[in-house]
Write a structure and sequence with these properties.
The protein has helices at about 20-30, 40-45, 50-60, 85-105, 125-145, 165-175, 190-200, 230-235, 255-265; strands at about 10, 30-35, 65-70, 110-115, 150-155, 180-185, 205, 245. With about 270 residues, the protein is an alpha/beta fold. The protein has one domain: Divalent-metal-dependent TIM barrel enzymes (TIM Barrel, Alpha-Beta Barrel). α1 packs parallel to α9 (about 255-265). The chain is globular. The two termini are about 15 Å apart.
Length: about 270
Amino acid sequence: MSRKDWPVSLSSSLSGSMESILAEYQAAGIRYMELTSFSHRYFQEELDFFRRSKEIAALAREYGVTIRSIHIPFSEKDTYDNSSPDPRVRDNSVRYCAKLLGAAAEAGIKIAVIHPSNEPYREEEREIRITSAIDTLSRITAIADALGMTLAVENLPRTCICRTSDEMLRILEAIPNLRVCFDTNHSLIESNVEYIRAVGDKIVTLHVSDYDFIDERHLLPGEGLIDWEELISALEEVGYSGTFNYELADRETSTPEHVAANYKKLMGL
């Protein structure tokens, strides 16, 4: 598909007034959202998403916004870690994800993004953690499948699992229905383009931001070193057909208005 077929999207934790945030999306012409948070408690307690998921999705639709994906939290590594060698920790992750995905499915959300691991880890841990991640992700993928959702595992930087396309492909080969969320500022060992071409049509959603090739920065595209024409062309080459979903760190430059303007510039609109 052509880049012109990728609608703009923006990740948001809906902190503050949901109505005011959705009004900003509406005014900027952004019609898709990823609902996200670092904290497991955010969905369960602060947002009360398990009880109010349908209400939240309906409110978004009133503003012309579709919540296309949900980002499963990834903090609290001693309690929830998909790559933990401790089966009790992995079981905690599966139980939490089952509840969260159930609420998301009720709200009509189709994609769940998940981290394969937390960090930091020692190199000698990698093999057991990859095997452990495959166990956890296979169970969560089965839950997503039963709910009519797609689970998308995210490529990660530094010592995390899936920091290379080889690790990602190993997990994908073990779990045929698992798909990929490609984050454009996480590739520190191989280039974005190499990673995209290796994973190919398994990519179903994106986290779009820029960086300095030293560590993740979640900058607005154009503020880092990514060759965006090269990256976007690689996504077209592998047939990417999802949204162009931004995930940014600086709230001052990541407003819906800024994102919409940046998207139009990148896409040549």
